[in-house]
Amino acid sequence: MKYLYIVRGPFGSGKTEFAKTITENVVSCWDYYAQYGQNKWNEELKPHADEYCRSSVSEFMEQGANTIAVTNSFSKSSDLDFYLEAAKQHQYKVFTLVMENQNSEEYKRDAPEDVVLKQIINLKNSVVFHQGF
C-alpha cells in the first residue's frame, strides 16, 4: 500500500518537521518561499508555492514513492481536492492530519500575524470529521 500524508496547519506549527519523521518524501509550500521568496511569506508567490506542491506530489506519485507527505496550511477543505483526486488516481491511501504544536516558537516562520490568524480561523471552520457509524 502507498500512503499520502496531508499535513494541515498554520505557518509555524511544525508541519514539515513532523512530516520528516514519517518520510523522506516531503513537499512543503515553504520550500518554494525559501527558494524564491527570501524565506518569508509572499502573497504574490502563494499561487506558485501551491502549484509547486501539486506538481512535486504528482512527480513523487508518478515515480511510485511508497510514502509522501505534503505540508501546507490547507486552510480550506477545497485545498485538499487536488491531492485526494491524485491519490485516488495513483492508488494512495490518504491520511489527513491537522497540526497543533505547543512549541510553535521553535518553528515560527516569517509570515504576517494576520495571515497566520486567518489560516487558523479558516482551519477551524473547515475541519470535518467523517464517521462511519
What's the arrangement of secondary structure elements?
Elements (H helix, E strand, L loop, with lengths): L1 E7 L6 H5 L6 E3 H8 L9 H17 L4 E6 L8 H10 L1 E7 L14 H14 L7
Parallel strand pairs: 1-3, 1-4, 2-3
Helix pairs in contact: 2-3, 3-4
Shape: globular
Oligomer: single chain
For the sheet with most strands, the description reads:
4 strands, parallel
Q: Please write the CATH class name.
A: Alpha Beta
* Residue windows where pLDDT falls under 50 for at least 5 positions: none
What does this structure look like?
With 133 residues, this protein is α/β, with parallel strands linked by helices. Helix content is 41%, strand content 17%. The chain has five helices and four strands. The chain has helices at residues 15-19, 29-36, 46-62, 81-90, 113-126, and strands at residues 2-8, 26-28, 67-72, 92-98. A four-stranded parallel β-sheet has the order 2-3-1-4. The radius of gyration is 14 Å and the shape is globular. The protein starts with a strand and ends in a 7-residue tail after the last helix.
In a nutshell, what does this entry contain?
With 133 residues, this protein is an alpha/beta fold.
Keywords:
alpha/beta, Rossmann fold, 133 residues, 4-stranded parallel β-sheet, 17% strand
